[in-house]
Write a structure and sequence with these properties.
The complex is a heterotrimer of chains A (256), B (264) and C (257). Chain B is of the alpha/beta class and 264 residues long. Chain B has helices at 49-57, 96-107, 111-124, 140-153, 170-187, 198-204, 233-238, 240-257; strands spanning 5-15, 22-33, 38-42, 64-69, 72-73, 81-84, 158-162, 190-194, 207-211, 218-223. In chain B, 37% of the residues lie in helices and 23% in strands. Chain B has a 6-stranded mixed β-sheet, sandwiched between helices. In chain B, strands 2-1-4-5 form a 4-stranded antiparallel β-sheet, with helices on one face. The longest helix of chain B is centred in the last third of the chain and has 18 residues, at 170-187. Chain C has helices spanning 3-26, 38-50, 53-85, 89-103, 109-116, 120-144, 148-155, 161-199, 204-213, 217-248. The chains are: A mainly alpha (256), B alpha/beta (264), C mainly alpha (257).
């Protein structure tokens, strides 16, 4: 057996064993039913909620929100980070502020947003957008600062005007930083989104699993958790990695 | 007819912003370079060679002194003085051909003409077949060829080269030197070439400028009387007058390194 | 630059921020309910410090973070090393843990509440699993990506498997592990704050959420400031020195994502 096949076989074996152990535990442990539903119950919840259209709706809502935050973060955060990064003095001044605001996640601002906007969509959006925005600004700034002065000098000795230095050197050079910022921002943002959906009670995966808890619908909780994990993998695979591959991996700036 | 490059009373001091330490890199340096001349600059480590180049390039404003190109003062970097940096300043996010084309892009040269020029220089530096590669896919020697091609393609009047072959292996270095020699002959550009390698300096230069140890001053200007068309490495290693010039310059440099008796 | 000067340098931007804040509220650009002036917030902070609510809640949150760390880190590192050493098991486990990594934190809260009910158990569990999966993953990856050549070097000097593990694999994995710990504290803090809003009646998360119910914007801002300061302090006083003393001192670079 080739190593690949062996790993796949082992993987399937482990998966099978895990599912088997789970089913066994669900059937035999002296706990109320709702503590540990068997895998079949989770599967049942999947088919049930999909058929009812609830799952697709909730998934779509959560995805919409995070993608909106990603786009806003890129369109707003990257230019701000670029501009701030271009001046050493300004960067040094803003660094502690950005660090602070990045570490106070959007969720911490949620209560204040509740005072401002009440329990509604806007509250969720502000919290999530904030969470994605600051890592992008911060890391874009760091990215710009990290561009070797050498490249800037090379362009100057070719008589390049300032705007060319920005487009030809600073932006591409800052891309690794931007990629980091996006990855970090989305990682924090996705989690903030789930938390916000739990707190504000709007349609979405966070709301789904939180609501399911009050009705002891543990299979739904597990289903929702699975979806949350899967969606992050999807975001990583179809959004973040292609972006990184098309740019910084291609230029040899990141080892994969 | 004014010399192409004139440096008068050039003095440069570095001040460390944190410790307030002052280091005098150049002190009263006077130098003139004629149009079409290939001047090499050698000296012991720390003698200010790179500072000199940086000042000429317009990247470092000198503490005092006049820096004139074609009789006009240098106020900043510009496309009249192209620089080949020691540390491969080609952009990692551009392919070979786009890097070489960069100077032309900046000058607004139309696409068709750009492509033709780039093709010519790719061939000149021997990188045919590698046009679409990114720098990280190339060896050190190849990257430096891209850097040289880029500066050449941008066609500056003056070429400033800062130890361009220092981080390249010995075999490649010899090849690059011979290529540069051919290019200098063909284009007749004014070239100022900084190196710590005495053999390289003598092989390439019409004149060899020896700098004193820090603070740098012109210690000697040694003429290399071999016609450029005849210069090859085999000649260099066999011709006695080439060898004598080399020994002469080496002795001058070693005097500046100081403390060592120059052995015959 | 002297320590004093550096600290002032660091504080200046915040001073400027407070100044702008004061001016904005003084000019009446924003209703005080939405953004209370710095003075009100300072007063609220004083009140909360005096009646003890500030300390109780801060300590509650800190306690959960520390407990989660204390439980999570040793277990995660131990398991990560054990699995990482097993060449067959590692490639199978890695994607699984990677998946759970993506899932860690607040998403576990409803399940935690189902199992442990409301209260500090659930919140601490959230912290624990955030730390656990991330550090496990990083340790695993760290052990697996130690360059083989170091292992060969020790082997060709007659080193045993034990030597390889103790002298090559664990130190080699250290940058990954430390990075993992640093990142997971970042994620963990956030998860704890969020969990406290939902599942308990103590802690900074609860404090600010509760204040929202009473429209006490000044108390909210006090809470937010404390959260930010605590995180910055943790990072500056604990994590960075930790990284400096291990990774940076050895000139290593992390290979973890």
């Amino acid at each position: 057996m080739t190593p690949r096949v062996e790993t796949a076989a082992l993987g399937l074996g482990v998966l099978g064993a895990a599912l088997g152990a789970w089913s066994l535990a669900a059937a035999t442990l002296p706990l109320p039913d709702y503590y540990l539903p068997p895998p079949t119950a989770v599967l049942g919840a999947l088919t049930d909620l999909t058929a009812k259209g609830i799952l697709p709706t909730y998934v779509a809502r959560s995805l919409e929100r995070i993608l909106l935050a990603a786009v806003t973060g890129l369109l707003v955060g990257v230019p701000i980070g670029l501009v701030l990064g271009m001046s050493g003095r300004v960067s040094q001044f803003c660094y502690p502020l950005l660090n602070f605001f990045q570490s106070v996640s959007g969720i911490a601002w949620l209560p204040l947003m509740l005072v401002w906007f009440g329990f509604g969509e806007r509250t969720i959006l502000v919290a999530v957008n904030y969470t994605v925005l600051f890592p992008l600004i911060f890391n874009t700034l760091l990215g710009v600062r990290s561009v070797p002065r050498l490249y800037v000098n090379a362009l100057r000795t070719m008589g390049a005007p300032r705007w060319r230095i920005v487009t030809d050197v600073l932006v591409p050079g800052a891309l690794p930083g931007i990629a980091t910022g996006l990855r970090l921002g989305l990682a924090y943002g996705w989690r903030a989104l789930i938390a916000a959906e739990m707190l504000v009670g709007a349609q979405g995966l966070g709301y789904m699993i939180f609501n399911a808890q009050s009705f002891h619908q543990t299979a739904r909780i597990m289903l929702g958790m699975g979806m949350i994990g899967v969606l992050w993998v999807v975001l990583d695979y179809f959004l973040l990695r292609p972006l990184e591959d098309a740019t910084i991996a291609r230029w040899g700036l990141v080892q994969r | 007819m004014p010399p192409k490059i004139a440096l008068r009373g050039l003095r440069h001091e570095y001040v460390n912003p944190f410790t307030r330490e002052r280091v005098l890199a150049l002190d009263g340096l006077d130098l003139e370079v004629g149009a079409g001349e290939f001047l090499t600059v050698v000296g012991p480590s720390g003698c200010g060679k790179s500072t000199l180049l940086g000042i000429l390039a317009g990247l470092i404003p000198p503490t005092r002194g006049a820096v004139l190109v074609d009789g006009r003062a240098v106020t900043g970097p510009g496309r009249d003085r192209g620089v080949v940096f020691q540390e491969f300043a080609i952009l990692p996010w551009r392919t070979v051909e786009r890097n070489i084309a960069h100077g032309l892009e900046i000058q607004g040269v139309p696409r068709a003409e750009r492509a033709a020029t780039v093709r010519r220089f790719v061939e000149l530096v021997g990188l045919t077949g590698f046009e679409r590669k990114y720098p990280h896919e190339l060896s050190g020697g190849m990257r430096q060829r891209v850097a040289v091609a880029r500066t050449l393609a941008a066609n500056p009047e003056v070429m400033l080269m800062d130890e361009p072959f220092a981080s390249v292996d010995a075999q490649t270095r010899i090849t690059l030197q011979e290529e540069l020699n051919a290019i200098a002959q063909a284009t007749g550009k004014t070239i100022l070439f900084v190196t710590h390698n005495v053999e390289e300096a003598v092989f390439l230069g019409d004149r060899c400028c020896v700098l004193s140890r820090r603070p740098g001053r012109v210690k000697a200007l040694v003429r290399v009387d071999i016609p450029r068309a005849r210069r090859t490495w085999t000649l260099f290693t066999s011709d006695p007058s080439f060898g004598a010039t080399k020994d002469h310059v080496l002795r001058l440099v070693r005097e500046e390194v100081g403390g060592e008796e120059s052995r015959p | 630059m002297t320590r004093m000067a550096a600290t002032l340098r660091g504080a200046a931007p915040f001073a400027a921020l407070v100044l702008v804040w004061a001016l904005v509220t003084r000019a009446g650009l924003v209703p005080p309910l939405f953004l209370p002036p710095p003075g009100d917030v300072a007063r609220a902070a004083w009140e909360m410090a005096r009646d003890g609510s500030l300390w109780v809640n801060t300590l509650a949150s800190l306690g959960r973070v520390l407990l989660g760390l204390a439980a999570g880190v040793p277990l995660a590192v131990a398991l990560g090393v054990v699995v990482g050493l097993n060449r067959r098991l590692a490639p199978v486990v890695e994607p699984v843990i990677g998946f759970f990594n993506a899932l860690s934190g607040i998403a576990w809260l409803p399940l935690a509440i189902t199992w442990f009910g409301l209260g500090w158990w659930s919140v601490t569990f959230i912290m624990f699993n955030t730390i656990f999966f991330l550090v496990f993953f990083n340790t695993l990856v760290g052990v697996r990506t130690v360059p083989r050549i170091f292992e060969h070097a020790v082997r060709t000097m007659g080193g045993s498997r034990r030597h390889v593990i103790l002298q090559v694999l664990i130190p080699g994995a250290l940058p990954s592990i430390v990075t993992g710990i640093r990142m997971s504290i970042g994620f963990g803090w956030r998860a704890v704050i969020a969990a406290e809003m939902i599942a308990t009646s103590t802690g900074l998360g609860f404090l600010i959420f509760n204040a929202a119910n009473f429209h006490q914007s000044d108390a909210i801002l006090v809470g937010i400031a404390v959260i930010g300061v605590l995180w910055l302090l943790t990072d500056r006083l604990v994590l960075q020195p930790l990284e400096r003393r291990t990774i940076e001192r050895w000139g290593l670079v992390s290979t973890a994502p």
